[in-house]
Amino acid sequence: MRSQARRTGNARAVGHCTVSAYAVLALLGLLLSSAEAQQAGRFYRIGVLNEAYAPHHPAVEGLKAGLKEIGFEEDRHVAFDIRFTEGNPRTLPAAAAALVAGGMDLIFTSGEAATQAAKEVTQKIPIVFTVIGDPVATGLITEVARPGGNITGVSSLTTRLAPKRLETLKTLVPDLRRVWAIYHADDPSSLAAARAVQEAAPRLQLELVSWSVRTHEELAHALEALQPGDGLLPPDISTLDIPAQILRASLAAQVPVVFSSAFWIGYGGLLSYGADYHAEGRQAAWLVAKILRGAHPRDLPVEGANRIELAVNLRTAKRLGLLVPRKILVRADRVIE
After folding, report:
1. Which of 61, 78, 248, 323 could crosslink 44 through cysteines, CB 3.0-4.6 Å?
2. pLDDT for 335 beyond 60
3. CA angle, 241 as apex, 199 and 142 as ends, to 5°?
4. CA-to-CA distance for 49 and 108, rounded, in angstroms?
């Protein structure tokens, strides 16, 4: 009897423990569900920093569109504090500091100067970049696969694609003999791209002239040196508004230009080969979403731009007296007639 009683008591104890275990598991489940619900309902603040001349930079619009597709709607799940410096790199540090002081959950940047400014003021707030041709050459990261620190993003691959842009320009203008690569002196990505095209120029029977500038006056002086028969390679940055200045000068001097983004083709640029800013922003949105959900930038490899496109403006070609070969037309992703 005592043995049976002990067995019965043990069974009751085991049953009690089992019930308690189930209760604990149920409670943990409720707590986890509550935590997930709280995480899902959290409102995030994203700071935006670039050298654009307006708040609606294509990469920023792409970011917003991408986040909305993922489930982060503006003003419902996320708010944006956009700081743009109209091509002036000197105001970037103050703008970056203001975003940090504002308690942003993440900082989204476009361009090397903006990313560097953000990096210098915070090692804690995650930074996701776009429109950087070579993040290793800039010193922002040491390795693409393992960026480390608080930075990751999407590279526009400008350096890697630079020789192909030169080749495309030569295909469009077969009698081209000299091309100018004008860039900001403090932009390592542009310098790396200029070196890449310098190596490619001889096989295309082209003379490549690299010209670095730091001021508007130096830029104007460089553009005044253009001669009929020259070509131009603009940098992939907004500093000093160099691409826009090159666009205006090229149209006035009837000089062909190949840009790194189709963004400029819509404003009268002749030719472009490279990443699409809006698509870069959409692609970066997935990295942003992962970080907002708990991932660390150091664990997210830097991605190369998924969308690389060739664009040509036939109206500008006609204005410059150029006949666009079929080889370019059949490959073009975008043609403006």
Report:
1. 78
2. yes
3. 50
4. 6
- Angle (CA) 93-97-99 rounded to 5° is 120
- Read off φ and ψ for residue 305, nearest 5 degrees: -55, 130
Largest interatomic CA distance in the chain: 112
Query: Which class for 160: exposed (0-12), middle (13-18), buried (19 or more C-beta within 10 A)?
Result: middle
pLDDT digits (tens, 9 = 90+) for 52-67: 999 999 999 999 999 9
Torsion sign across C-alpha atoms 247, 251, 254, 260: positive
What does DSSP say about strands 308-313 and 271-275: parallel, antiparallel, or unpaired?
A: antiparallel
Sheet architecture: strand order including 78-84: 78-84, 44-50, 106-110, 127-132, 151-155, 303-304
Give the integer Cα–Cα distance in Å for 311 and 334: 5
44-157+277-307 has CATH 3.40.50.2300 classification = yes
**257 secondary structure, DSSP code:** B
- Among 4, 288, 5, CA closest to 154: 288
102 in helix, strand or coil? Answer: coil
| Domain residue ranges of the chain, discontinuous segments joined by + | 1-31, 44-157+277-307, 158-275+309-336
pTM: 0.83
Residue 101: other Cβ atoms inside 10 A:
9
Q: How open is the CA angle 58-126-138, to the nearest 5 degrees?
A: 70
Place of tokens 């091509």: 87
User: For the stretch 57-88, what's the b/e string if a residue is b when 16 or more beta carbons lie within 10 angstroms of its beta carbon?
Assistant: bbbbebbbebbbebebeeeebbebbbbbbebe
pLDDT at 189: 85
Among residues 306, 295, 263, the alpha carbon closest in space to that of 66 is found at 306
How does the average pLDDT of the chain come out, rounded? Answer: 88
Domains 44-157+277-307 and 158-275+309-336 equal at CATH topology level: yes
CATH architecture of 158-275+309-336: 3-Layer(aba) Sandwich (3.40)
Query: Within 13 Å and on the Cβ side, how many CA atoms surround 262?
Result: 18
